[in-house]
Amino acid sequence: MTNVPTDDGPWLVVGLGNPGPDYAGNRHNAGFMVVDLLAERAGSRLKSHRSRADVAEVRLAGTRAVLARPLSFMNLSGGPVSAVRTFYKIDPARVIVVHDELDIPFGAVRLKRGGGDNGHNGLRSISSALGTRDYLRVRVGIGRPPGRMDAADFVLRDFGTAERRELPLLLEHAADSAEMLITDGLEPTQNRFHALL
C-alpha cells in the first residue's frame, strides 16, 4: 500500500479533454473517455457543477471519489480542477489526472506522480492552479504523429480506424489503473500496467 494517503477523504479523478461534440472522438479527449467509462462502471452520470466542470460523486473500488471533466478548453483546465478540489476539500496527493500522451506508444498506459508537463498545456494549467506538480497522472499513450504532421493537429484528430478497434481495451486499462492507484498505490500499479506494453 505504498504512496496511498492515510486519511479517508475522497479522491479526485480528472479526465482532460475539450468540451463539445466536435472534439468528442479526438485523441486529446482520451482523458474524458476514461472518466466517462469510470462513471459508467459506477452506475453514475457526470452532471454540471458550479466549478465549471461536469462532476459525479461515486465509489471506485469501494472508496469515495469525485470524477470530473473540466468544461473549459484543455489549456485552461487548471481553474475548474482547482475549483473542484477546493469544493470537495481534496488533498492534492489524492488527485489523479488522466490525459493523452504523445511520447507513449498507442495502447500503453503509464503512471507517475509529479514531474514536468512535457509540453502538455492541460497539465501546465493544472500544476499552476494547484500550486504543485505532485499529483498522480494516468498517461494514455496515443503515439507520435505520422510523417511531418504537426503534433497539435494530430491530437485534435479522431482516433484512426485501426486505433478505434483497440481503443476500448486501452480505455479499460486506463480506468483499471486509476482504480488500482486508489486501492494499491503507485508502485504496484506501475508494476502491473507498465508490463502490459
Uncertain stretches of 5 or more adjacent residues: none
User: Helix count?
Assistant: 6
Helical fraction: 25-40%
Q: Strand-residue fraction? A: 15-25%
Summarize this entry quickly.
With 197 residues, the protein is of the alpha/beta class. Helices cover 35% and strands 21% of the residues.
Task: Produce the secondary structure layout.
Layout: E1 11-15, H1 30-41, E2 47-49, E3 53-60, E4 63-70, H2 78-87, E5 95-101, E6 109-113, H3 121-130, E7 136-141, H4 151-155, H5 161-184, H6 186-193
Parallel strand pairs: 1-4, 1-5, 5-7
Antiparallel strand pairs: 2-3, 3-4, 6-7
Helix pairs in contact: 1-5, 2-3, 5-6
Structure description:
The two termini are 24 Å apart. The chain is globular, with a radius of gyration of 15 Å. It is an alpha/beta fold. β2 (47-49) and β3 (53-60) form a beta hairpin. α1 crosses α5, α2 (78-87) packs across α3 and α5 (161-184) packs antiparallel against α6. It contains six helices and seven strands. It has a seven-stranded mixed β-sheet with strand order 2-3-4-1-5-7-6, with helices on both faces.
Descriptive key words:
single chain, 197 residues, alpha/beta, 7-stranded mixed sheet, 35% helix, 21% strand, globular
